[in-house]
Design a protein that fits this description.
Blueprint: E1 7-10, H1 14-25, E2 30-33, H2 42-45, E3 49-50, H3 61-85, E4 96-100, H4 103-118, E5 124-126, H5 128-134, E6 144-148, E7 152-153, H6 156-169, E8 173-175, E9 180-186, E10 189-195, E11 200-202, E12 205-208, E13 228-239, E14 250-252, E15 257-260, E16 265-269, H7 283-296, E17 304-316, E18 322-325, E19 331-335, H8 341-358
Parallel strand pairs: 1-2, 1-12, 2-8, 4-14, 12-19
Antiparallel strand pairs: 3-7, 4-6, 5-6, 9-10, 10-11, 13-16, 13-17, 14-15, 15-16, 18-19
Helix pairs in contact: 1-6, 1-8, 3-6, 3-8
Length: 380
C-alpha cells in the first residue's frame, strides 16, 4: 500500500480521529468522513472516566486486560496531546471512590470487590470516616466505600479538540457533514465508500468507526454488519466553585457517578436506555440523576445546572468492541466500544496501525474480531 493511497475512516469520534492522526503522522493519506461535526457524538457526550478497575465485571476478562493496557498508555498519550497541540486535556489521577449507602449496597459492593481483586485490581476498603476524610461533603447515609487508586479521568472534550487539531496539522483530511451511505466492495476486496450524494471515494482500506451508526452503513453482507446499537444515556453538569469544589475524586454511587472537572463543572451520569436514537431529555431521567447524586452529596442542591445532554453509546452484543480485520480484504472494524471509547482510544489505534500499514494482525485483536459472533446473533 503506497503512502498516498487513501485510508477512508468512517466516523470522526475519538476512535476515528486518534487512528487518523496516527496514520497521518506515519505519512499516510488519512481521510475521515463524519456525518455531522467531528467529535460531537458519543465521544463528546462521555464523562471521560478511565476506569477499568471499578468497572470490571464477570465475563469480561479480555476487555479488562485491554482496558488496563490502554490505561497504562494514557499518561504518555495525554502528555503528547498537550505538548503537540497546546491543549491541556485534563488528565487527573486522584483515583475513584465507590460508596455504599445501605447495608444491601455494601453487600453488593463486597461481592464485586472480591471478584475485582481476584482479577488483580488494586482496591482499598474505606470506613465511612475514612471516606469522609477524603471527601468531606459526602452525605450522612454511608455504609462503606472502596478506593480505586489506579482509575483516572480525562476531559474528553478537550481531548477531542486536541485530536482534531493534530489530525489536521499532520495532513489528515476531515470531511464533516459528509455521510457515508455504503462500503463498496468487489469480490472479497474493499474498493471504497459510497457517499450520501452518490459519489464514490476510492480506497483500498476502509475503517468502520462510526460508533452507534456502524450497523446502518450499507454494502456489507449480513455476516459482517457489526451488531452495534445505540444505548441512550442522559447526563447533566452542575457548576461548582473551582476554588472550593464539593468533590475531588470521581465518585461512583449505587445509582449514578459524579465526575469533577478542574474548571468547576460536576458531571452526573448516566441513564442506560434502549430507545434507539431518541434524543429526548426526560423529566424522569434528569430526576433520577439528580436524586442519585443528592443522596450521596446533598450539597449539590445549591449548585446551578449548567448543561444537560443525551449521548448514544455504541453497544455491541457482548458490550466489547469489535476490532480488527474481516474476511473482506481491506475492511477493518473499530466500533462497538460502548462505555469504553475514551479509555480504549490509545490502544485501539496502537493495535490497528500495524494492520493498516503492514497488513499484520496483532494477536491481541483476536478476541475482538467480528467473527466471534455467531450468525444467529448478527444484525440483519
Amino acid at each position: 500500500m503506497s503512502a498516498r493511497e487513501p485510508v477512508a475512516i468512517i466516523g470522526g469520534g475519538i476512535i476515528g480521529l486518534t487512528l487518523g492522526w496516527r496514520l497521518a503522522e506515519a505519512g499516510m493519506r488519512a481521510v475521515v468522513f463524519e456525518r455531522g461535526e467531528a467529535g460531537q457524538g458519543a465521544s463528546h457526550a462521555a464523562a471521560g472516566m478511565l476506569a477499568p478497575g471499578v468497572e470490571t465485571e464477570p465475563g469480561e476478562d479480555p476487555l479488562v486486560a485491554l482496558g488496563r493496557e490502554s490505561l497504562a498508555l494514557w499518561p504518555g498519550f495525554a502528555a503528547e496531546l498537550a505538548e503537540k497541540s497546546g491543549i491541556e486535556v485534563g488528565l487527573r489521577t486522584e483515583g475513584t471512590i465507590e460508596i455504599a449507602l445501605t447495608r444491601d449496597d455494601a453487600a453488593r459492593l463486597a461481592r464485586r470487590v472480591a471478584f475485582q481483586r481476584s482479577r488483580g485490581i488494586e482496591l482499598q476498603w474505606l470506613s465511612p470516616a475514612e471516606a469522609r476524610a477524603r471527601e468531606p461533603h459526602l452525605g450522612p447515609q454511608l455504609a462503606g466505600a472502596v478506593f480505586s487508586p489506579n482509575d483516572h479521568q480525562v476531559d474528553n472534550r478537550r481531548v477531542l479538540a486536541a485530536l482534531r487539531r493534530l489530525f489536521l496539522a499532520a495532513g489528515g483530511e476531515l470531511r464533516e457533514h459528509t455521510a457515508v451511505a455504503a462500503v463498496v466492495t468487489a469480490g472479497e476486496r474493499v474498493k471504497g465508500v459510497r457517499l450520501g450524494d452518490g459519489s464514490l471515494f476510492s480506497a483500498s482500506r476502509v475503517v468502520l468507526a462510526a460508533g452507534p451508526w456502524s450497523a446502518t452503513i450499507e454494502g456489507l453482507p449480513a455476516a459482517l454488519r457489526p451488531p452495534v446499537r445505540p444505548i441512550k444515556g442522559q447526563m447533566l453538569s452542575l457548576r461548582m466553585d473551582p476554588r472550593a469544589p464539593l468533590l475531588r475524586h470521581v465518585l461512583w454511587t449505587p445509582k449514578v457517578y459524579l465526575v469533577p472537572r478542574q474548571d468547576g463543572r460536576l458531571l452526573i451520569g448516566a441513564t442506560t436506555e434502549e430507545r434507539g436514537f431518541d434524543p429526548t431529555l426526560t423529566a424522569g431521567g434528569v430526576f433520577s440523576l439528580l436524586e442519585g447524586a443528592w443522596r450521596a452529596l446533598p450539597a449539590i442542591e445549591e449548585l446551578g445546572i449548567e448543561e444537560m445532554w443525551v449521548g448514544f453509546r455504541p453497544g455491541s452484543r457482548d458490550d466489547a468492541p469489535i476490532l480488527g480485520p474481516t474476511p473482506i480484504e481491506g475492511l477493518i472494524m473499530a466500533t462497538g466500544h460502548h462505555r469504553n471509547g475514551i479509555l480504549l482510544a490509545p490502544i485501539t489505534a496502537a493495535l490497528l496501525l500495524p494492520l493498516l500499514l503492514e497488513g499484520r494482525t496483532d494477536p491481541r485483536l483476536l478476541p475482538f474480531c467480528i467473527d466471534r459472533f455467531s450468525s444467529s446473533e448478527r444484525v440483519s
